[in-house]
Design a protein that fits this description.
Elements: H1 12-23, E1 26-33, E2 36-43, H2 46-57, H3 73-84, E3 92-96, H4 102-109, E4 113-118, H5 121-133, E5 140-144, E6 157-161, H6 170-180, E7 188-194, H7 200-206, E8 210-220, E9 227-237
Parallel strand pairs: 3-4, 3-6, 4-5, 6-7
Antiparallel strand pairs: 1-2, 7-9, 8-9
Helix pairs in contact: 1-5, 3-4, 6-7
């Protein structure tokens, strides 16, 4: 069942009440991204919540796992990369598929104006709470998008992490990026995804309009101890 849209202009305590009602106990955890340190809201018993969802599937209900709620290692890797990136002063940045918006908030801490978007109202709820908790509400705009149209302005940079998972949306996503990225030759799209995700359909379509550069960054998975790799992409208009 799809989550309903929330009134995100409510005070943080009211928004936290909504989160607790939906997900059970929640807690803020400190997450470091490069030189930034943020308080990020997490579902305290994620496995218990997932088990609850699985029980609902037995009665024929369709459920959506809250994958956006996890702080993925690739987000940390991308955050380190963004911390070194030479963003122009006064840049307007759009984060797509933001989830809890770790990287968007880290950029807001550096003084940039950031618009955080997602298709999932629960993800936007957590993003808004995170912005309030970290005192970034004046630099951050949180809004829902279904990727079907423009946002009323163009952005100097668009960032996204682990959001290339739905092949059915690849063509629409490329169109959304084209619609919302500034026309300036310096405007860029910065993406990160796990090495296992090829997202070939997205990049084939994007190649029609963008020049692309790929680099890789390694990290040690704290859960498994394995060395893993994240692909980092930079796209500019042709």
């Amino acid at each position: 069942m799809a989550a309903k849209d929330y009134n995100l202009e409510q005070p943080m305590d009211k928004l936290l009440d909504i989160a607790v009602k939906k997900f059970g106990e929640v807690e803020f955890k400190t997450v470091s991204v490069g030189e930034s340190s943020l308080k990020i809201l997490q579902i305290k018993n994620m496995q218990g919540y997932i088990d609850k969802l699985m029980d609902q599937t037995r009665s024929g209900k369709k459920v959506v796992l809250p994958l956006w709620a996890k702080v993925w290692p690739s987000s940390i890797v991308m955050g380190v990369s963004l911390g070194r990136f030479p963003f122009a002063d006064g840049s307007h940045i759009l984060e797509i598929g933001a989830g809890g918006s770790l990287n968007g908030l880290a950029l807001a801490m550096r003084g940039f104006d950031v618009t955080i978007t997602d298709t999932d109202p629960d993800a936007l709820l957590f993003s808004r709470i995170n912005a309030l908790k970290n005192g970034l509400e004046d630099s951050v705009t949180v809004r829902k998008t279904d990727l079907s149209d423009g946002l009323g302005m163009r952005f100097d940079y668009i960032i996204g992490c682990e959001m290339l998972y739905d092949e059915a949306q690849f063509e629409q996503l490329v169109g959304f990026v084209q619609e919302n990225l500034a026309e300036a030759p310096t405007a860029e799209v910065l993406l990160a995804l796990d090495l296992k995700r090829e997202a070939r359909g997205f990049f084939v379509k994007a190649n029609e309009s963008f020049n692309m550069m790929k680099t890789t960054a390694g990290f040690s998975d704290k859960e498994t101890g394995d060395d893993k790799t994240v692909n980092l992409f930079r796209l500019r208009r042709k």
